[in-house]
Task: inverse folding
């Protein structure tokens, strides 16, 4: 029985590129690989937003209106719905003037029970150090 820990680190802005969306898509898709693993093996993903990446967590995104695409907001809620651990860097939020009220903390509106966590960079660093695979977006 082995658990592979995957850390998806999002540092990219949420608009004009697909980078952030790919990070969320890969984190969500990581939950489906278990059907290909040996019995008892698991994948443990963590999705961390830091630097400009914390802007992906803002509420009330208007991606469909502005760009004609679904928002990162819905992707993030889907990740929370799947119980993926979501971390948002506290220091970067403070630097950008973002408060907890400004970001997506849960997916209760679609039945999710897991909440995002606002943590210090050192907590994110610990997650990176204990991961088997790091994926930077």
Result:
């Amino acid at each position: 029985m082995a658990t592979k820990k995957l850390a998806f680190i999002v540092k990219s802005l949420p608009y004009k590129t697909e980078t952030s969306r790919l990070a969320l898509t890969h984190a969500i898709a990581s939950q489906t690989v278990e059907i290909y693993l040996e019995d008892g093996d698991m994948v443990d993903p963590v999705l961390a937003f830091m630097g400009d990446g914390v802007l992906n967590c803002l509420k009330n995104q208007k991606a469909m209106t502005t760009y004609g695409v679904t928002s990162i907001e819905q992707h993030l809620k889907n990740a929370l719905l799947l119980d993926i651990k979501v971390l948002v860097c506290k220091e970067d939020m403070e630097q950008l003037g973002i408060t907890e009220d400004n970001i997506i903390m849960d997916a209760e509106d679609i039945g999710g029970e897991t909440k995002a966590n606002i943590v210090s960079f050192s907590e994110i660093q610990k997650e990176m150090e204990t991961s088997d695979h790091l994926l930077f977006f």
Summary: The chain has five helices and five strands. The mean pLDDT is 90. The longest strand covers residues 3-10. The two ends are 29 Å apart (CA to CA).
